[in-house]
Structures are given as structure tokens and as C-alpha cells.
Amino acid sequence: SILKVFKIKENNSVQSGDVVSIIYEAKLEDGRVFQSSNGETIQVTIGEEPIPWLDKKLAWVKSGDMLSFSIPASYWSDKYYDPNKVQKMPIYTLQQAGITAEEGSTILLWTQITAVKSIENDTVILDSNPLHTRQDLHYTIQVVWLTR
In 3D, which of 74, 89, 98 has the Cα closest to residue 128? Predict the structure, then answer.
């Protein structure tokens, strides 16, 4: 993604309260799109952290710069990971529901995407925490407009 910055302060830095119009996409490590503006331009206000670290990443951008960065799963897990969402279940229970569990896969369980962490004997360890608490997110951002 090529940044197209149309208006920049003399010191080339963004500050809290600046409004930035962006098009963005965040992908999980496995390549699936986790979050996106769907090709539409959205406005974000620096300092409100709609995308973590965005203000730091935009600090010195210029027209034509590329902006892509990753946010580690650990950033999200500190905020959203709930150990109570990790559970053990007999593999038989899943089989009765017509669900095939393979270690490392994800399954749809009670309308929730759930990771199969491991299978030990006849027990499955399931993790229904959000996917981004288990995988890094890779952002690609195109800056369409900076309002000063």
C-alpha cells in the first residue's frame, strides 16, 4: 500500500487529535483477513487508538511511503485473553455433534470459532479466545488524507 499524504505539518509529525483518513486491512498469520475497512476510506483520530500504535507509525510518513506493521498476539492477549475460555472436552462429545477435531485446527462450536489446542488421549483442549489473541496481526495501511 502506498501512502498518499496530502497535507503535512512543518515538522512532519502527527499529533493527538489529528484526523487521518485511511484504508486498512489486518490479516492473521494464516493469511485470513481479520479486520478491514473493506476498501472504504474511514477516519481515525490519533490518540484514540483505533489501531494500536498507529500514531507512532504515522509520525514521519511522507507521500509514497509504505506502511505495514505487525502487532503481536501478546499485545491483544494482555487485554482480551481469558483463561476461562480454555476448556477440556471429551472427543466423543464433538464426534456426537459431527465435528472432527484435529490439533491446530479451528472449529465452529456453539456459534463461536474455537481453536483445537491439543488432543490428549480422549480429551480435546479447546480455546475460544479471539483469534487475534493467538496470532499476530499484520496491518497494511494506505493513508488517504491527514487533516491538520
Answer: 89
Question: What is the rounded CA–CA span in Å between residue 130 and residue 77?
Answer: 9
Instruction: Return the exposure string of 39-63: e unless at least 16 CB atoms fall within 10 Å of the residue's CB, then b.
Output: eeeeebebeeeebeebbebbeebee
Whole-Å CA distances, 111 to 19, 23, 92, 128? 37, 29, 19, 11
Q: What is the pLDDT of residue 13?
A: 61
pTM of the complete model beyond 0.85: no
Grid cell in block for residue 5? 499524504
20: pLDDT strictly greater than 90: no
Question: Which runs of consecutive H residues, i.e. helices, occur in 43-113?
Answer: 54-57, 73-80, 91-96
How many residues in the chain?
148
With pLDDT > 90 as the criterion, what percentage of the chain qualifies?
29
